[in-house]
Amino acid sequence: MNKIEIGLNAGKIWHMLYDYGRWNYDELKEQSGMRDRELNAALGWLAREDKIEFFQEGDRLFVSLGVNVYIG
C-alpha cells in the first residue's frame, strides 16, 4: 500500500459517504471491499483533511461526511 493507493481509497470512501450519508464501519468495509488496513488508512486520510466525522452508538462506529463552515 502506498500514498497513491490510500488517496484513491479515500476518494472511493468519500463518494460512498457523499451518496449515502452515514455508514456503519462494518457496512462501509463490506461495501467498499477494503480490508481493515486499507479502510483505516483511507478514513485516516479523510479525518486528517477534516472531511469526516465519527459517531459511536453503543459498540457500533458510524462515519459520515463532516460539515466544514469557514467564515472569513
Secondary structure topology:
Layout lengths: L2 H18 L2 E2 H8 L3 H13 L3 E6 L2 E6 L7
Antiparallel strand pairs: 1-3, 2-3
Helix pairs in contact: 1-3
How does this structure look, described?
- Helix content is 54%, strand content 19%.
- With 72 residues, it is an alpha+beta fold.
- It has a three-stranded antiparallel β-sheet with strand order 1-3-2.
- A hairpin with a 2-residue loop joins strand 2 and strand 3.
- Helix 1 packs across helix 3.
Mean pLDDT: 92
Q: Provide the CATH top-level class.
A: Mainly Alpha
Helical fraction: 40-55%
Strand order of the largest sheet: 1-3-2
CATH homologous superfamily annotation: Winged helix-like DNA-binding domain superfamily/Winged helix DNA-binding domain
Q: Which structural category do the helix and sheet elements fall into?
A: alpha+beta
- Extended strand count: 3
Form type: globular
CATH topology: Arc Repressor Mutant, subunit A
User: Could you tell me how far the N terminus lies from the C terminus, measured between alpha carbons in angstroms?
Assistant: 38 Å
* Total number of distinct structural domains: 1
Order of helices and strands: HEHHEE
Unreliable stretches: none
CATH architecture: Orthogonal Bundle
By DSSP (H or I, 4+ residues per run), the number of helices equals 3
Radius of gyration: 12 Å
Largest sheet: 3 strands, antiparallel
